[in-house]
Design brief:
binds S-adenosylmethionine, 12 helices, about 290 residues, LCMT1
Length: about 290
């Protein structure tokens, strides 16, 4: 997990795993289940991994909400949002406090998500003022509503991104949390560098939270690499930036970059009570853990 700051400041399988962790009580999200056909139960180790990922992203979101609470205009820009339920669960928690959420994914993914939302009473009732807009020129698909916007655009295409997001109402000078959770590493590094660069350039008051794999050569890293090899899918950034993504962010215009591996997050930032709660949910005998020194 890495966050950079400036100024003052195989898609469905991911959802299925998040739904599994939520169903086992690792975290609370009543909306993820609306984005899958069937709720399946994953192995305890996978549930716990998804919990730590979810908790780390949530931690960054809550820090951002706290740091910007006095600002009247605040935004979350989620790049490669897929079928994540972020807006709906934060809205239900009452945590958004006027923050506007912009979710971006490829047009075909955004179109499927828009169709899903429009056909689901629970989800569409949470967007009473929504309109579905289709931009013929850029092939972008929108759901546009007061505090939720779903946009179909390839994030590698900077000019299209700028035009489309401006059209959707993104305010480039407002405090913004840019989120990319397991997205950039699927791109060749010239493209992930470019995305990180346009975000730094276009959003002068922002923090970029990214969650990606590091340490390809530890036992877990090797399992993951073999898995992606079988899927014929390369994890590009991992080759070039195996330990941290500091080298990825700073040359692209970010002023500061902090990287945390998930063991550090689990042991250093979670309270003992919360760790005990989680470890009591589905005890398992063996797991490898690299405690921070
Ligand atoms: C592994 S999924 C993660 C989804 C979501 N961030 C989550 O954590 O649940 C990666 C997502 O990134 C999207 N994506 C990858 N490259 C993209 C690009 N160039 N432009 C827009 N979306 C992209 C994919 O379509 C997919 O929905």
């Amino acid at each position: 997990m890495c966050s950079c700051s400036r100024g003052s400041g195989r898609m469905l399988c991911y959802v299925v795993s998040k739904v599994s962790a939520a169903a086992q009580g690792y975290f609370h999200d009543d909306f993820l289940k609306h984005f899958v056909c069937k709720v399946s139960r994953r192995a305890p180790l996978i549930n716990r991994g998804y919990y730590v990922r979810w908790k780390a992203v949530d931690h960054c979101l809550k820090q951002f909400f706290h740091a910007t609470q006095s600002c009247s205009r605040r935004q979350i820009l989620s790049l490669g949002a897929g079928f994540d339920s972020l807006y709906f669960r934060l809205h239900a928690e009452g945590a958004l406090g006027g923050v506007t959420v912009f979710e971006v994914d490829f047009p075909e993914v955004a179109r499927r998500k828009a169709a899903l939302i429009n056909s689901n009473t629970c989800l569409k009732d949470m967007l009473p003022d929504r309109e579905t807009v289709s931009n013929q020129q850029t092939n972008a698909v929108f759901i546009r509503s007061g505090h939720y916007n779903l946009i179909g655009v390839d994030v590698r295409k900077e000019q299209e991104v700028e035009v489309t997001l401006s059209g959707a109402g993104l305010q480039w000078d407002a405090p913004t949390l840019v989120l990319s959770e397991v997205v950039l590493t699927y791109m060749e590094t010239q493209w992930s560098d470019a995305v990180i660069g346009w975000a730094a350039k276009l959003l002068p008051q922002s923090v970029f939270v990214m969650y990606e794999q590091i340490h390809p050569d530890d036992p877990f890293g090797r399992v993951m690499q073999n898995h992606f090899l079988k899927l014929n899918s390369t994890i590009h950034a991992l080759k070039q930036y195996p330990d941290t993504v500091t080298g990825l962010c700073l040359p692209q215009g970010w002023e500061k970059c902090v990287c945390l591996d998930m063991n550090q997050f689990y042991f250093d930032l979670l309270l003992e009570d919360e760790r005990q709660r989680v470890e009591g949910l589905e005890p398992f005998d063996e797991f490898e853990v690299r405690k921070p020194p």
